[in-house]
Amino acid sequence: MTPEKKKIPKKYQPKGFEILYEDRDIIVGNKAPEFLTVAALWNKEKTIHSALNEYVRKGNPRSRKCVYVVHRLDQATSGVLIFAKTEQAQSFLKDHWMDTEKTYYAVVEGQLAQKTGTISSYLFEDDEYIMHSTADSAKGKLARTAYTVLKETSAFSLIKINLLTGKKNQIRVHFADQGHPVVGDRKYGKSGAKHGRLALHAKAISFQHPFTKERLTFEARVPEHFSKLVDYHY
User: Fold this and answer.
1) Residue 74 catalytic?
2) pTM for the whole thing?
3) Which of 41, 136, 185, 225 is the one with CA 20 to 30 A from 64?
4) Cα Rg, the chain, nearest whole Å
């Protein structure tokens, strides 16, 4: 089931986060690219998390209301993102995360030899915050990415991804490992900013509501940037 979207005036929408749905337990929204989900060493204040804390406090500096992080999207990645409004909701969603279905769209460079499959490796992070794949289970954490090619051009491939695990930079590392980095990936690709923003978008998420236990599905519209790279009915 997809609940009806609650109309929220634009002036109350947190910057960089279009709220798609809200109730007493959760907030679901569409994160814009280049916004951090949570604080980082170089930016501790201008995040979606902090913006939503201000949103639920409704301008009351004495309010202790806050939202709780359930999962994250890379700064350059756009798309659907869930926050919990209580610690109980957060715990439930995290405990049932393996049952949560996460669908991404990515445009990668070139054409993949196998049009559908699952990429598996163990990921670890180095001292420069770069993620790497290894076959050694003792060195990293298991990451699995299922994918299907939806359309190809002479230069790019549009990929639909079912994220089976949720490790840092997982999709970007896995496709770079295959020799087909995500278009616009300055960290793991070679094209740099040649094609603009990172072509990675969290399209949909399906999960069990922490209170009603109903299965909910939310989708975040795919940015126009994708259509400029691969013409497709998104």
Assistant:
1) yes
2) 0.91
3) 41
4) 18
